[in-house]
């Protein structure tokens, strides 16, 4: 039986329980300091499990209770459908942004990934 199917069955047995992988992803999201971000792939690499799509799926399903705006696309484009909410958080936290070019849809800024990206750094005790 595949690991994915086993996880689904475990979740069906305990419907209120969060899948273990989802818990781990959300724990990483909670560790990201204000004003910093990690790309979906960064989180997967940090966990040494899954990939950007799996992390994105977890954030889409369960991320509402954590600072979801700190787990982002690697290109710095704001999360479609949540741009204005995320932008409010970024501005409040002082997250580095790049001005939008005139050709950018909606003229929304992007995250300055070079300056905003967090690698776990010194305050990442407990990294597994």
Secondary-structure topology with pairs:
Layout: H1 3-13, H2 20-31, E1 38-39, H3 40-47, H4 52-62, E2 71-72, H5 83-93, E3 97-98, E4 110-111, H6 113-116
Helix pairs in contact: 2-3, 2-4, 3-4
Protein architecture, described:
With 128 residues, this protein is mainly alpha-helical. It has six helices and four strands, in the order ααβααβαββα. The protein has helices spanning 3-13, 20-31, 40-47, 52-62, 83-93, 113-116, and strands spanning 38-39, 71-72, 97-98, 110-111. The strands form two sheets. Strands 1-2 form a two-stranded parallel sheet. Strands 3-4 form a two-stranded antiparallel ribbon. Helix 2 packs across helix 3 (40-47). The longest helix is centred in the first third of the chain and has 12 residues, at 20-31. The two termini are 26 Å apart. Mean pLDDT is 85; it is low at 1-11.
Q: Tell me about the biggest sheet?
A: 2 strands, parallel
This entry's quaternary arrangement is: single chain
Flag low-confidence runs.
1-11
Structural class: mainly alpha
What spatial order of strands do you see in the largest sheet? 1-2
Strand content: 5-15%
List how many beta strands DSSP finds: 4
- The helix tally amounts to 6
From the N-terminal CA to the C-terminal CA, the straight-line distance is 26 Å
Which descriptor suits the 3D outline?
Answer: globular
Please tell me how large the radius of gyration is: 16 Å
């Amino acid at each position: 039986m595949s690991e994915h199917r086993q996880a689904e069955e475990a979740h069906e047995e305990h419907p209120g329980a969060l899948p273990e992988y989802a818990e781990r992803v959300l724990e990483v999201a909670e560790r990201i300091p204000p004003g910093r971000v990690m790309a979906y792939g960064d989180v997967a690499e940090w966990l040494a499990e899954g990939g950007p799509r799996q992390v994105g799926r977890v954030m889409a399903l369960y991320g509402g209770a954590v600072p979801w705006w700190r787990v982002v696309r690697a290109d710095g484009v704001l999360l479609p459908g949540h741009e204005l909410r995320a932008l409010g958080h970024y501005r409040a936290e002082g997250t580095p942004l790049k001005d939008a070019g005139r050709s950018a849809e909606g003229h929304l800024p992007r995250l300055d990934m070079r300056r905003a990206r967090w690698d776990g750094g010194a305050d990442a005790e407990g990294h597994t």
